[in-house]
Amino acid sequence: MSKLKQEILKLIEDGNFISGEKIARGLNVSRTAVWKSIQILKQEGYEIESVTNKGYQLRRKPSVLSPTKLSSLVTRSEVFEGMEYFTSTESTQKDAFRILEENDNTYLVIAEEQTKGRGRFDRQFESPKKSGLYVSMVFRPSISISEIIRFNLFISMAISNTLDEAFGLRSGIKWPNDIYIDNRKVCGFLTEVVSEANIINAIVCGVGINLFKNDALSNVESATSVEEEMTEGQSLDTDIFLEYFFNNIEKYYVKFLNEPFSSIRGEWMRKSIIFNREISISEIYNHYKAVALDITEDGFLEVLDNEGNIKKIISADIEL
Predict the structure, then answer these.
(1) At which of 11, 42, 60 does a domain end?
(2) Are residues 178 and 259 in the same domain?
(3) H or E element that contains 159
């Protein structure tokens, strides 16, 4: 992504007029280069007004994710070293694993659309064009493979807090990998690893967040979008959302590397939507109903089944 576009976006983000001459002089580029970058930002959805003798003014941010904003956030990131951006791809998760073969860095793969997006247990994940955030994040923690359950707990907190802080929502966590608003799913994430001798070389975490209303979602009763849940008249600022998303992912990833689950257990429990209610649990060879009791320091779910047995769940599909 063009670094010039990132720098120009920083200069106009406050909404005040700034002349093309001042931008060009400050960035040591030509007025023509500034004009060309402004045109590309307009194509990305930024509404930028140009007034003679006053310059450029950002009137409105895009209602879709901006590649320039994403690139700017990656440039400032303390966790991620690079990014791949696609207008359309089969699966960001598939792309992330392909890049793993030739890249030892931490990075993101982001797409406007996935034609074969997938969730846990190889379920199809609807990813219509310009309707959500579809991203696969590659981390390099060099930790025991047993820590991956705990990783999911920290990432779920990061995503849930992002939605609440960016949009004023009240989201909840459905163990282990889903985020809900008012009992409807707004986000799911899939965590996969590359490991050797029980040590993780890479975590590939694919996240899908439904941001905007679309026909595919309207046909799924159990699904929702951020746009549907926001207060009427409230604008969905994707640039602000991306800033919260990056900040929270990095904050909770660093916590995951340095702190036990107990450091966030209280806030995680307050966010959870599975306790004090009957849930359906599907394991590979077993399906039963139970009541969720607690979560251990290792991230295992403790439940009481209908026969009075307390079980510890490591990996399962849960329905409310």
Answers:
(1) 60
(2) yes
(3) helix 148-167
Tokens linked to 142 = 């060099």
CB 217 within 8 A of CB 210: yes
275 close to 304: Cβ distance less than 8 angstroms: no
Note whether 34 and 135 are same-domain residues: no
Q: Are residues 89 and 228 in the same domain?
A: yes
| Number of domains comprising the chain | 3
- Burial string for 145-162 (b: 16+ CB within 10 Å, else e) reads eebbbbbbbbbbbbbbbb
Peptide bond between residue 260 and the one before it cis (omega within 30 degrees of 0): no
Q: Are 79 and 126 in contact (CB under 8 A)?
A: no
Picking from 81-95, 148-162, 215-229, 303-317, which range would have the lowest pLDDT averaged per residue? 215-229
Positive or negative torsion for Cα 176, 179, 181, 183: negative
Same domain, 98 and 138: yes
Domain identity same for 193 and 234: yes
Percent with pLDDT over 90 in the chain:
55
In this structure, the answer to whether residues 159 and 16 fall within a common structural domain is: no
SS3 call for 279 = strand
Domain termination site, one of 21, 45, 60: 60
- Please give the Cα distance from 58 to 112 (Å, whole number): 23
Residue pLDDT, tens place only, 214-245: 877 767 778 899 999 998 778 888 999 999 99
| Paired tokens of 92 | 């960001």
Find the CATH number of the domain harbouring 34: 1.10.10.10
- For 311, the enclosing helix (H) or strand (E) is strand 310-313
- Integer Cα distance of 3 and 9 in angstroms: 10
Cα distance between residue 249 and residue 8, in whole Å: 26
Nearest to 67 by CA among 14, 1, 127: 1
Range of the domain at 293: 274-319
Q: In the prediction, which pLDDT does 120 show?
A: 66
β-pair partners for 302: 294, 312
Tokens 């207060």 correspond to what residue?
A: 231
CATH of the domain at 89: 3.30.930.10
In this prediction the pTM is 0.86
